[in-house]
Design a protein that fits this description.
The complex is a heterodimer of chains A (108) and B (115).
Chain A (H helix, E strand, L loop, with lengths): L3 E4 L2 E5 L4 E7 L5 E7 L5 E7 L2 E5 L2 E6 L4 E6 L8 E8 L5 E3 L3 E6 L1
Parallel strand pairs in A: 2-11
Antiparallel strand pairs in A: 1-3, 3-8, 4-5, 4-9, 6-7, 7-8, 9-10, 9-11
Chain B lengths: L2 E5 L2 E4 L5 E8 L5 E7 L5 E9 L2 E4 L5 E7 L2 E6 L8 E8 L1 E2 L2 E2 L3 E2 L3 E5 L1
Parallel strand pairs in B: 2-13
Antiparallel strand pairs in B: 1-3, 3-8, 4-5, 4-9, 5-6, 7-8, 9-12, 9-13, 10-11
Classes of the chains: A mainly beta (108), B mainly beta (115).
Amino acid sequence: KNEVEQSPQNLTAQEGEFITINCSYSVGISALHWLQQHPGGGIVSLFMLSSGKKKHGRLIATINIQEKHSSLHITASHPRDSAVYICAVSNTGNQFYFGTGTSLTVIP
Amino acid sequence: SQTIHQWPATLVQPVGSPLSLECTVEGTSNPNLYWYRQAAGRGLQLLFYSVGIGQISSEVPQNLSASRPQDRQFILSSKKLLLSDSGFYLCAWRLLAGNSYNEQFFGPGTRLTVL
């Protein structure tokens, strides 16, 4: 069993739809990360959070420490949001565990 | 502003040949540095991290090694490549601020194909 599980693996949405990607983890963490990987391979860090909720533009990330669960929401999705979204967790010892990613395609 | 460079961008190497991938960071000092690999169809895997010059921690036993000869330079090497070393290699950095780390910043990556 992987330390980090994401769902769904693949997601296709119509432009404008509200999107949710889920992440569950089974290890103790100091922070949870949401990353975005574009088709060329480059990775951008979207959020790093250890509690509560963060919002950047149309993106919202939440975490429930007790349930060991996080969600990434995209409001008013757009074709440029098409990418692979990766959930990762880290601890104070510099260990990182990654989910296998959710491939999102937003259709115009 | 901070930037992170990796080279080469793509590399095709025969089995058994040596490897050297370089990563440099600009605009910051004393970063934590990381090497990741993403094999085809699989998730990211942390290979090595470094908290300072000459300090290397290995997460996964393999035929790869890492070195940090300067504060902002991180090198990934192999003496003899295996087919299973093919993948997308990413370098990343982050800073320790007080008792906690900030977010990670990733380089553009090197796509390695071992034939």
